[in-house]
TrEMBL record:
EC number, UniProt record: 2.3.1.46
Subcellular location: Cytoplasm
Catalysis: reaction(s): L-homoserine + succinyl-CoA = O-succinyl-L-homoserine + CoA
Residue ranges the record marks as coiled coil: none
Organism for this UniProt entry: Polaromonas naphthalenivorans (strain CJ2)
Protein name in UniProt: Homoserine O-succinyltransferase
Amino acid sequence: MHFADVLPLRSGASIRAYDLSYETYGQLNADKSNAVLICHALNASHHVAGVYLDESGQIQKKSEGWWDTMIGPGKPVDTNRFFVIGVNNLGSCFGSTGPMQTNPDTNEVYGADFPVVTVQDWVDAQARLLDALGIQTLAAVMGGSLGGMQALSWTLQYPGRVRHAVVVASAPNLTAENIAFNEVARRAIVTDPDFHGGHFYKHGVLPKRGLRIARMIGHITYLSDDVMNEKFGRQLRDAAGIKFSTQDVEFQIESYLRYQGDKFAEYFDANTYLLITRALDYFDPAGEFGGDLSRALAQASAKFLLVSFTTDWRFSPARSREIVKALLDNQIDVSYAEIDAPHGHDAFLLDDARYMGVVRSYFESKVSA
């Protein structure tokens, strides 16, 4: 969907003549009361469920939506009941206007000149999309990780437009350690000789080395120690034994991380990575209230479901409990589930029966269509 009007941003900059890519699943009911907005995390997109078909009608390889375990007919977020909307955020590289597109004011590719965006800016853009679709009130807004931050922000920016918020594996802000991880990843990108100050498009190159390292750093933080030990342990890549090399790949975990980094560098935009990690850093609704999260959440009127995972050390259960406490301080209806799962932060993407059961139960018993 194209938007001609100017969108003011929290930085004081603005953007105009931008596009938002989105997908919908299910049917919008007559009074438009059954809409569920899904907010995506760092490297995801608007393609949250289902698969794409090629011209012959065959399923395209690896085209499954990133939350297909959660959303669809008969699934926890049942598209037989709900009209689900997935939106690709501004600044992303999967269809919505971002650094790879042309700036209408200069007729040149944005590159590093794309304005810095925040979680609040994304929510404002999503609200405009809903306006264009004629949807005034959401049955629910839902997201995991950075998507959960957007869901939380929806309840503060547009409290009258959200009946329920489902916040999974998220936090009210990033800890210093999390900001540090993001900064190391950004430095890997900006110090890549092919980065060219963010204008690498003009030079016909991509900063793949920096992107590979950024992805490797991020991927380590998404997994738990238990999962890495169970999957890889100290297995060597070469059955012949140790090579006694400081540069060759020796262990299976090294090979896995390099594979993940190589794959990521082929499809993700470096400037988008910088923008999205910075949006993560900036998010802090309590910041305007002297760090008092209870005061910040006093303006929310939605009902909440929060879910966390015991081995998620990047967005630990303690961070979800901070939100739960702040909501209870305001006597806001909140349900909370802490799932004992071994998968680390990535657990929010996986088909854990207890996790899926919690979400299914909440939507069946509390979220009216």
